[in-house]
Amino acid sequence: MREACACSWALGANGNLNQRKDAHMFIVVALVLGIVSGLRAMTSPAVTSWGARVGLLAVSGTPMAFMGFKYTPIIFILLAIGELINDKLPNTASRKAPPQFIARVLSGCLVGATVGAAAGSLTAGLLAGAVGAVVGTLGGAAARRRLAKAFGKDLPAALLEDVAAIVISIFAVSKF
Length: 176
Hints:
It contains 8 helices and no strands. The protein is an all-alpha fold. Helix 3 crosses helix 4, helix 3 crosses helix 7 and helix 4 runs parallel beside helix 8. It is globular.
C-alpha cells in the first residue's frame, strides 16, 4: 500500500503510472521548496503545511504528519507574515549570517522532508530541501543585490522576492 501511495501522484491523465519519468519528481519539488526557503525561511513551510493540511501532500502516518495538523499552517502563516515584515526593516541581518543561514537550511530540510515523506522517501526529500536552501540563500542574496542596484533601492527588490517566494511555493506544492 505504501508503494502505491508514494507514486499515486504520478498518474497521468489516462491513468497510467509513468514511474520512470515522474517517480522522482518529488526530488524536484523538494529542491524548489528548499530554494524558496533560501529566499524566505517561513514561506515554503507555510505553503507546504497548507498543502499537507488540504491533502495535497499525504503525510498522515509519517513522521511529518504534524505538518498537516489543524493549527500548523496557521502558525507557519503567522511566522511567514512576520518574516515578510521583518525583512523590510533596516536593521535586519543578512540571510548569509550564520543564524539566518542555518534557519534557512533547517527550513529547507523541513519542507523537503515533508515532500519526501509524502512520496515515501523522507531522507531524499530532506537532502534535496537542504541543498535547495543553500542554493536559494546564496543565489537569492546575489539576485536581490543586483535587483536593488537596478532599482536604486532595496524595497522593490524585496517585494519582488516576496512575490516570487509565494508564487513558486504554491506552484510547487500544487504540482505534487
